[in-house]
Amino acid sequence: MIETDLHTHSFFSADGRCSLDDLIGQAISVGLRQFGISEHFNYDYDRLHLEIDGEPVPPIDEAAYFAAARAARERYAGKIDLYIGAEFGYDHDPRTQERYERTRKTYRPDYVINSVHTCLGADCYFPHYCDGRSKAFAYNAYLYRVLESLDAAYEYDIVAHIGYCSRNATYPDPKLRYADFADVLDEILRRIVAKNKILEVNTSSRTAGSPFLPDTDILCRYFELGGRAVSFGSDAHDTARVGEKRDVAEGALRAIGFTHLTLPCRGKRVLLPL
Questions:
Q1: How many whole angstroms separate alpha carbon 92 and alpha carbon 97?
Q2: Domain boundaries, the chain
Q3: In the prediction, which pLDDT does 55 show?
Q4: Second label for 164, Cα 20 to 30 Å away, from 24, 90, 117, 141?
Q5: Is residue 271 a contact partner of residue 30, using CB atoms and an 8 Å limit?
Q6: What is the CATH class of 4-273?
Q7: Does 62 have pLDDT greater than 90?
Q8: What does DSSP say about strands 118-119 and 122-123: parallel, antiparallel, or unpaired?
């Protein structure tokens, strides 16, 4: 079974619900060997002045996070291999992208996850993103933002949770299918392959109609186009979901033909057999 989870969040993220020690302890408990913390860096939220439940989203304490995570790596040495990452919320504004690159150069995370959370001036995770918009319009807008994000002016390793906009979508059929958005998805997948990035399989799918994001049809197309680099992430924000559905993800990946996961670390990659 998959023994790696590279996409998790603790209290250092505004929406995290447990401590670093709780997360790491749970990872050890469920048998993970490589575990990645990837706290949210919401510079996209900062520029757009977005709020959640009427409250501003507090910024991450960058220095405190990296210091605490590196101390934890030393503390748990010999029990689990801890990787210290960052999840950058893509924003098209060049000043935001420059800010991300400054952060990356300053703190040198082991890996960077590049994520699209905001689109059309809102976080497309929330149901209100769908209000007054057809599924075709809302999903196309999100996917073209993902395509744009692949040319971000900062270094990154992993392309996260393609299909994020479907997690809490209110459409009768929320599933994001390859056949419905083949043109833009082909451009996304081809560019991921050409740029030698890693496509994440993310098991936080909520009510998206899929066991993981992106779903099997998109992963099959990625494989057809020559994509072989995939990572696994539960996107856990508490201990309950650490490593969740890794057996399901592994079975699907093996059936498609994938033979390994790819773990990035400071410019190098480790291939982990499935």
A1: 7
A2: 4-273
A3: 85
A4: 24
A5: no
A6: alpha beta
A7: yes
A8: antiparallel
